[in-house]
Amino acid sequence: MEITAVEKRRKSLCAIYIDGEYALDLDKTVTLEHALNPGQQITDEELYALKSESDLRRAKEKALWLLSLQDYSRKSLRDKLIKDYGEQATENTLDRLEELSLVDDERYARIYAKDLFEIKKLSARAVKYKLIEKGIDRVLAQEITDEYDPDEEQQIYDLLSTKYIRNMFDEKGRRRTISSLQRMGYGYSVIKSAFDEFDEENGYIKDDEYYEG
Predict the structure, then answer these.
(1) CATH fold of 3-99
(2) pTM score, two decimals?
């Protein structure tokens, strides 16, 4: 097979043409390092090796750019890379980033859980689910949520006194609040207890209708 053209493209890519037809895109640096030019002969094996090298280089560059913006779990970063760079380049990239401690699921999980508990005020059940959703091992997810062991009734009470305070003056608002809290992973009994405490502290008449449905 003969390379018949090498054309520069956007995003630091070069289009490689073999025997007059477009074959593939390669990273510009890989193209330059291997001095690929029209007229060269190349085998399928050599072309595959170049493609693998190009994918690995670009996967690493993309991963480092993404990590410069925010932290990622291994699974989250894998999901960002695999479609464009394939499984081998993606897994090799992630293995290397883990060796360099640039990807660390435990560190990521603790930071993410802290945000979910302290900022978003989610329940322990919801936090565990979201950690697992991000690819965190179930045992580690359980360990981290157990370490926080939040007082969920107090968390709900604080939300009723701040974020949802305007909803607490009418039935429709209270129902919306209950639905919102349930979406945050809180169960019926703890929500009712927090509402009862709020009503008692603020002199509101309790109405069990709010907890139906």
Answers:
(1) Arc Repressor Mutant, subunit A (1.10.10)
(2) 0.78
